[in-house]
Amino acid sequence: MHKPVLLNEVLQFAAPTAPKWILDATFGRGGHTRALMEAHPDAKVIALDQDAAAVEYAKTSFAAPIAAHRLHVEHFNFHNISQLPNKPPEGFDIILLDLGVSSPQLDEAERGFSFYNDGPLDMRMNQEQDLTAAEVINTWSEVELLALFQKYGEVRRPQRVVRAIVNDRKEKPYQTTRELASLIERVEGWRKKGHHPATQYFLALRMAVNNELSGLESCIPDLMRALSAKGRLIIITFHSLEDRIIKYAFREAKELGFPLTKKVVIPSDEETETNPRARSSKLRVFQRGNSDEPAAFE
Q1: Where does a domain end: 152, 174, 209?
Q2: Is position 114 within any domain?
Q3: Number of domains making up the chain
Q4: Looking at residues 21-30, what average pLDDT do you find?
Q5: Looking at CB atoms within 10 Å, which of 26, 192, 230, 233 has the fewest?
Q6: For the stretch 249-280, what's the b/e string if a residue is b when 16 or more beta carbons lie within 10 angstroms of its beta carbon?
């Protein structure tokens, strides 16, 4: 079962706003949404996800709040938040983004996100899009693959892996996650105990397939503008590049508001012990309005 990360912290930052309108822009399996609705029984929630499977899950598992018009679920990518219909005129009191991959996406082999489960090289969060991880691996040039793994995967020296990919795909295109992971294991070797050598390569592929960094960077100002007068934008990241984008975007948006969190919020030791997937998570909060307002330092 998917466990929402940093849930207690999300609820703490949401509480002072007494939200009437909440936007969960990355619904997943609805863990954060469920907890926020329980904590704020008068709030209405709009939930977005670009994964059609998540939307279908919401329709069956959240049927009662949907029927009661407390929850509205859209098959929608938050990167396009400026085009979202039916936004509340007064804005959202809470906007939440959890930028991690949901447990079902990782655990279902056919989605192709995990090197532990053999499946097609897919990695699309939105299965209606054309670009897949297989297309990236089999058609991008050596130069493009080097840049991808260095920038998004932060792999220092991916040259040997990339040369092996380019050489091997001449004979047979890569089709499965196991094929790619096995090559990386063979070329890189296990250098760090408990850390699969394919981890950063798969992360880079996923981010490229789903346009995660550039899409995130371009939409942050629109997310801020979608907040109510003292609304809060809560973002959970799992990658240093994502966190850096959020950190500087929050600092530079002085005309809209201010970062509520002076330091990044990380999970407790207790949470990381019970939910290992929370280990790399980080949380930052932005508040709309002026920093000299009383609510700013709660």
Answers
A1: 209
A2: no
A3: 2
A4: 96
A5: 192
A6: bbeebeebbbbbbeeebbbeeebbeebebbeb
